[in-house]
Amino acid sequence: MITPLDLITAFLGIIAIGIAVVPFIPERRVPQALAAFGSLAAIVIMWASGETLFAGHTFHAWLWTVPGLGRMSLAMDRIGALFVFITGLIYLPVSIFSAGYIPRYTGRYSLKAFSAWYLALFASIVFIPVCGDILSLLVVWEVMSITSYLLVVYEHREERNARAGWLMLVMSEAGTLAMVIALLILAAHGGSLDFAGIRTGIAGLRSGTRWAVFLLSFFGFGVKAGLFPLNIWLPRAHPVAPGNISALLSGVILNLGIYGIVRVNMDLLPITSVGPGLVVLIVGAITALVGILYATVENDLKTMLAHSSIENMGIVTTALGAGLVFLAAGHATLAAIAFVAAFYHMINHSVYKGLLFLGASTVDMMTGTRSMDRLGGLIHRMPWTALAFLVGAMSISALPPFNGFASEWLTLQSILRSVELSSIGVKVAFALAGAMLALTAALAVTAFVKAFAMTFLGHARSELANNAKRATKTLIVPMLILASLCLTLGVTPTYVIPTLDRAFATYTHASATDALVPPFFLATKTNLHGLPADFVHDFSDLGAQSGKNFLPGRGLVVMHRGGEANPVVYAMSPAYTFIVLLLLLGLATGGVWLFAARRRRVVRRAEWDGGVRRLTPSMTYTASGFSQPVRVIFQSVFHPAVEEESRRATAGHFRLAIRRVHRDVYLPERLVFHPLTRLAQWIAACCARMQNGKLNTYAGYVFIVLIIVIIVGIVIW
Amino acid sequence: MSQWVFAGLKAGIVTTPYPRREDHAHGITPGRPRGGVVASPEEIASHCPVGALAATGEGITVDRGRCIHCPACRADIPWEETYEWATVPPEAKEAEVERPFRRSLHVLVVDAGDCGACLSEVGQLNNPYYNMHRLGFFITPTPRKADLLLLVGPMTEHMKLAVEKAYAAMPTPKRVMAVGTCAASGGIFGSSFVAGHGANEVGSVDVVVPGCPPPPLAILHGLLLVAGRAQEVVER
Amino acid sequence: MELNKLEKTLHDRFFERLTTRISSSFLDIECSTADLIEVSAMLFNEQACAFAGMIIEEEDVSWSLRYMFYNDHGMIQVMIAASHDQTEFPSISAHVHASDWHERAAEDLFGLSFSGHPRLGEFILHEQWPEGTNPMRRGFDARAPFSHWESRPDWEPPRVFDSPGAFSMPIGPIYSGIAESVHFQLETIGEEIVRVIPRLFYKYRAVEKLAQGRSVGEALLLAERFNGTSSFAHAFSFCQAVEKIAEVEIPQRARRLRAFLAELERLRHHVAALQGICSSTGLAVAASQAGILEEEMLRLSGVFAGHRYLFGLATPGGLTRDFTDEECRNVAGTASSIAQRLNKLERLLTRSSSFLDRLERVGIVTKDDALRYGLVGPIARASGSGRDLRTFLPYGGYEELLLSPVQEEEGDGYARLRVLFSEARESSRLLNDIAADLPSGDVCVPVEMRAGWALGWTEAPRGAAFHWVRIDDAGNVAEWRIIPPSFVNWHGFHLAAEGFAFQDFPIILATFGLSAAENDR
To answer: Between B161, B162, B169, which is nearest A605 by CB?
Structure first.
């Protein structure tokens, strides 16, 4: 029998062979080789993590001993397996996509280097959740940071890319520093570098230390997860990376930040008070809102997607925070539901954001621009890309039957369950977070209506868009794989929820499966499986048992049951909804075809333009115009939008030209980083004043220092 | 806002009884000259500044497509205070077999060089005195939903393209109605280097409502004619 | 300033470079092309004269360009003459901005070019006309169909606003329910209108050209029918020009009745404009109430004058028909009752905050801008710069009538609404004054045509309407120029709409109450 460990070894072998072989392959074959190695490795690692995630085969393996520090180890539990599985899930289509995508760099940049880094990044990402001790985690984490930096600045001859990559590296290292301190505190108190050792040795930590570990790890991993206000690097780095790497950055690497937060605060040092959970909740909600606000007004397709990634990480974090609060407050079941919501959303985000980034990169590749103000009308030239992007946009806008709906719905429902909590303050925080998420959801629709409509519908707004090439199958197939995943994940929440629930059962000691997926398929007249009889009766009248004979599992209805007073708190079934939608669509199409289309002749005419001579592309709504109302309403967020206005006039009356330029300063930069920069400069300026070059001043300094040293010495003595 | 409810109620109903009964109110029509037997037809015809009057033997006929009811012939021949002026041109009579708009009619009003008076009279159909909605006639701003192209003005060169585009954008079945003397024949502006000879420049005209400007009831009569809900009044 | 003082001031500055002649309330200045800019800038900016318009006449061997100014003492004509092969003249519109569109029109129609004007071309004649087509030139045959159109598949309108994501929103020429054909190019980046470029002359019918060589009677038909909604005012203005050439004094009764009819038309026009404002704000009951009043005014005109839009009444020498004193008093009585109902409507409107919100501080034209663009009529009076020709340069029957001037200062939509209401009240009062004291006598005298030229003017419902007519030796119209108020006010329309949001645009348009037919002529 093949164990997960064998598979992981095989995976490592494939990657190693790949990295070793690529330099010897002719340049034009490199893309195919990359795709082959990448997808093969992805399949192997999905198999490996699947064994753990679905079948529960966890493993632990000792590696070698580092003198003076301890032994390094690999350990795969369900939660680690979940992250590894998602990585494989995204890497598979992205690797295929790369075969069609990276040839665009031929002759300008080295494809071989790209492939080597790409595979190394894959390995490092996979190993982060599998590390069983602090030492190996740090090593792999740094490999991941550096390879991802190298890939972001792959087009290194662009000034902008180098700057963005630099900022990403600096922020990432600052985060690593905080993370290291947090882990070292744990190691010091747990007396071991090994996770298992820490878990057993950590008990009885003072609350101050707990807070310190929480804050440091939340800060450290929050940088990677793109949480507010540590995300200034993200909207710069994600768009400048090559398209396939952007998909990985948003679809996979952001998850690692969440992984870190979970590993430290739920596994190694479980949070016991409500406070940290609330911090996570509020930071998450603010991240989501700020992210979507910028996504809505952004006109660069990839930058917009990067801001939207921030938003989605915010939603995941909010749900996570809600779960932590519920757990600390003793509502284990609600906590389980919230965690399920959080990780469901994280998976969904990986899938649809991967899809959207691939779509955006295809558009970029085929037109040469990412500016929505210059795109438009691409649905005619790139119909499959448009279809895939539309699925992604509908998913991210949380429209049923796609996956975003199921997880966002669960997230909002979990937050609404704050009525079960006793503290008024916590309730208010939940209410605020809920309101912010609701606003976020609404703005997300606006943002993606804009992204899809401005890119694919209407007139081509520039020659670039007009001359768009058709996308090749190598590019389209991966997008369609991800699009079908969006649909699958969307209609099968009753299968996703138990899988996720099992991953967290260790920490919550409660089951979301029982709370959310009633066993309608299993219930018979004689064995009700814990459901009240009239309940089963009512719901089978509604059709909740349809499919019972040929589908495995507990049922297709997601439902949360309350007490006697409110037997059903909330319920939905994307699966049945999907079937009904299909039926209605079929009926409508059939009806139109039967009664209208066959009898009438369809005549196509040019669009109605009010009678002008020519409707030029400059006469159609632009992306900026579409989001202008949002910009006006949320002026206080975008302010100060540096606005240059120049008017060219002759003799004051004839206005021949008006020019207006907006330059938004990103909110966290304005609120946090610019003040910090100014503070640093101010301190530097103060220090500079001390350096006046006079000998007696320096003598004075020496004297003052001496006195301070003496006083301190006396006090300590 | 309740004040408006009371103000509206207090005004009562002012709507014309037409088309159920004739409307006899004063000032609803400018009137127009009537042809017939007169004493010295040649001399009277020569008074007309637009050549709308023609002598035929012992009588006189009025070319409705040219008459702008200026008062030049007021002293010479009788004028009639009628308003059911809409006519169907002979070529349209043959072409039409069905009248698909009996219940409702969506009208696209296009100004092709009108002086403002015809347009103002069309606008009156929306006010409570005429209230064309009660008869199922609606103004639409887009040709996509329009059944009837209501044209005013002599068809200026600059509007020709727009009118052609609007006509092409209308779904079939569709009709064209020329309102006013300008739309009927080009009137006193057409045809010239910049103005055409009326609505027939764009397509076959189905109903003509002559007049300068035709009063609202005449336009209403034209709409009813398009809808197949009224008869032409034949001039004797 | 009185004209003789003005003449002296001019001589003090320009010495003998100017030739001036002065007759009763008419100052004629002939100057060289080189002095033109300075003379007109001095009149417009220093002497606060209003700019009426530019009149270009092509003669066999020469051009004459007349720049018409006026103040409350009379007309001032600055004339330059040039040989026929000179086609370039200095543009005065940098100093007299009101002449901007006049120069653009002249460029299109006569093929003259104005050096210093930054935006000539494609104004009256749209893009399909070949270069060098100048329909107002003498050799151009107006009645022959024109056929050599240029197809311009790559045509694009000029744009002013440049910003990432800026676009222009095209409106019209076919838009809205019942609207005149105008095209607006709104340049924007969403929400706020940064620049409005109205594209007019979709309805250009070349009436001035069509009248060439026609009899006065035929030209009069064009004068009253090129703009049906203020037909009488234009016919009135045209007749005055013709009567000045023929040097006829029209009977006192006709003068009073003309003023009576002009006020009747003004009242009807203002009611219609108010109806437009009410419906633009979506206030259905108010729009219906105003609609009822408008139809009643039309019926009143129909009953009284035989035509709902007062066509066919004015004629050189007087009026085509007489009215009894009794009829006039009845009309005045009905007008008073309509004015009372207007008062009631105004009271209701000023109590509807949802209505006022859409008008107050929306569509503002400042007094400076109004003066610089030379705006006229109710729009100018709402911006505090009203020059009502009825009191400023009284004409026709207005010399003996007492008018109280209407003026508001804010220049926003609400000020324009108030001006319309006040003027409607004032018109109804004038109707009663005139009907109460009608002199007896004839209403028409025969007119013997002779050669010559003259300028006639009236305060049409939308503002100052000038008609300049030259009669040839045969007694026919040789040249005719109309300077309608809408032409002037359309020029300034962009001032009101810029900086406001899309949803305010139809309301601003309604409060301006502009006519495309009157502008496009």
So the answer is: B169
Q: Please tell me the distance in Å from B16's CA to the nearest CA on chain C.
A: 12
Mean pLDDT taken over chain A: 88
Quote the tokens at residue A8: 């992981």
Preceding omega of C394 cis (within 30 degrees of 0): no
Closest CA to A471 of A389, A582, A555: A389
Q: Could you give the ipTM of this predicted complex?
A: 0.91
Structural domain including C431 reads 207-488
Task: List pLDDT tens digits, range A376-402.
Answer: 889 998 999 999 999 999 999 999 889
Q: Report the CATH number that the domain containing residue C94 is assigned in CATH.
A: 3.30.460.80
CA pair distance B129, B13, nearest whole angstrom: 8
CB B166 within 8 A of CB B112: no
Rounded to the nearest 10 degrees, how much is the dihedral formed by the CA atoms of A209, A211, A217, A218?
Answer: 180
Q: Distance, in angstroms, between B168 CA and closest chain A CA? A: 8
Among the residue ranges A287-301, A476-490, A649-663, the one predicted with the least confidence is A649-663
Identify whether C480 is part of a domain.
yes
C32 pLDDT band, cuts 50/70/90, is confident
Q: Which of C210, C227, C308 sits opposite B115 (nearest CB)?
A: C227
How is residue B144 written in tokens? 């996509």
Indicate whether A130 pLDDT > 80. yes
Burial class (CB in 10 A: 0-12, 13-18, 19+), A393: buried
Check residue C120 and report its DSSP letter. Answer: -
Average pLDDT over residues A473-501: 92
Contacts of A555 (CB under 8 A, 6+ apart): A494, A517, A518, A519, A520, A521, A522, A544, A545, A548
Q: Which amino acid is at C76?
A: I
CB contact under 8 A, C189 and A622: yes
- Please name the member of C142, C177, C180 whose beta carbon is closest to the beta carbon of B141: C177
CB neighbours (10 Å) of residue A16? 14
Question: Based on the domain organization, do C462 and C380 belong to the same domain?
Answer: yes
- Rounded Cα gap, residues A391 and A355, in angstroms: 9
What is the full DSSP assignment across C293-358? Answer: HHHHHHHHHHHHHSSTT-TT-EETTEESS---HHHHHHHHHHHHHHHHHHHHHHHHHHT-HHHHHH
Say if residue B229's pLDDT is above 90: no
Number of folded domains that form chain C: 3
Q: B-contacting residues of C 310-329, CB under 8 Å?
A: 311-312, 320-321
Domain assignment present for residue C495? The answer is no
Q: Is C125 within a domain?
A: no
C177 touches A at CB < 8 Å: no
One-character DSSP codes across C134-146? -TTSTT--SSSPP
Same domain, C88 and C54: yes
Q: Are strands B175-179 and B207-209 parallel, antiparallel or unpaired?
A: parallel
What tokens does A127 get?
Answer: 């190993």
- Residue numbers in C near A623 (CB within 8 A): 165
**Are C191 and A629 a contacting pair at CB < 8 A?**
yes
Residue-wise pLDDT for B21-43, tens only, equals 888 888 888 888 888 877 788 88
Angstrom distance (rounded) from CA C179 to CA C170 = 15
Please name which of A303, A241, A255, A314 lies closest in space to residue A281, comparing C-alpha atoms: A314
Residue C124 in domain: no
d(CA A72, CA A62): 6
DSSP letter assigned to residue B136: T
Using CB atoms and an 8 Å cut-off, which of residues 57-86 of chain B contact chain C?
A: 68-71, 74
Contact across the interface for B119 and C178, Cβ inside 8 Å: yes
Co-location of C476 and C418 in the same domain: yes
Dump pLDDT digits (tens) for A89-120. 999 999 999 999 988 888 888 888 999 999 99
Q: What percent of chain B has pLDDT over 90?
A: 16
